[in-house]
Specification:
alpha/beta; 9 strands; 250 residues; binds hypoxanthine; single chain; Rossmann fold
């Protein structure tokens, strides 16, 4: 092989998919099993495109438009890897995270949906990307607006409370700092989760669009938590809102 010839593209370090295997629009749950379930129940004609490290990805279509689903794994380092590789090497334009979160204020209940209009974080990520600047980690306004519209136009029978506001993307699931949660709540933070800030940072760096539509799976104040079965049904509302946002102006 001459110096000018490069090896054929056979995937990235973390994705075994071929060029074109991912659609430009991607749903991103944390859990690989949930990715498979979304592919089986929500996408038409889905086929598996990657399974490196058990992180499952599928491509099919939704309302006639090609759409993929790829698990992110847990935490900022994991979601950052997959989001970067999708935007940079697979031509992905939009990623909407569909995950779970723990509610902070009493006004947010288990099963509610939280659309993250901003992501605070204790991760170094917001400080290490642009020297001397604390980056604001925010979603694509177009996706945010489309998700808010989708939530408002849901059928009354399907409608539950949908909150739009900042979330806290934590680097430590078992963080035991009530005063920190109090301070975040006083500043309007709705819920804690572990990926949105990473996804928003990567999207802004890579020129892509991102959003997180979260289902409240547990309450950090009351200790209430959904069972595994309840999580599955509760999740469908967030999924519909996320998919409608992905399709905005396509
Ligand atoms: N903290 C962080 N991430 C989460 C939580 C939580 O309480 N619930 C679901 N994801």
């Amino acid at each position: 092989m001459s110096d000018h010839e490069s090896a054929p593209f056979t995937g990235t370090p973390h994705l075994a998919a071929a060029p074109g295997d991912f659609a430009p629009l991607v749903l991103m749950p944390g859990d690989p099993r949930r990715a498979r379930r979304i592919a089986e129940t929500f996408l038409a004609d889905a086929r598996q495109v990657t399974d490196v490290r058990g992180i499952l990805g599928y491509t099919g279509s939704h309302r006639g438009v090609p759409m993929s689903v790829l698990a992110s794994g847990m935490g900022i380092p994991s979601v950052s890897i997959y989001a970067t590789e999708l935007f940079r090497y697979y031509g992905v334009r939009r990623i909407v995270r569909v995950g779970t979160a723990g509610a902070l204020p009493e006004s947010v209940a288990v099963r509610d949906v939280v659309i993250a209009s901003a992501a605070h974080t204790d991760s170094s990520l917001s400080r290490i990307l642009v020297d001397g600047v604390t980056l604001s980690l925010a979603p694509s306004y177009r996706l945010l607006r489309a998700a808010a519209d989708a939530a408002e136009s849901e059928k009354p029978a399907d409608r539950g409370a949908v909150h739009i506001g900042p979330v806290f993307t934590s680097d430590h699931f078992y963080l035991d700092r009530p005063a920190l949660f109090d301070a975040l709540q006083r500043r309007g933070t709705l819920a804690a989760e572990m990926e949105a800030a990473g996804l928003y940072a990567v999207a802004s760096a890579e020129g892509g669009e991102a959003l997180a539509v979260l289902t409240v799976s547990d309450h950090l104040r009351t200790g209430e938590a959904l069972t595994a079965g309840q999580r599955e049904t509760g999740f469908d509302r967030a999924l519909r809102i996320a998919a409608t946002a992905l399709l905005a102006d396509v």
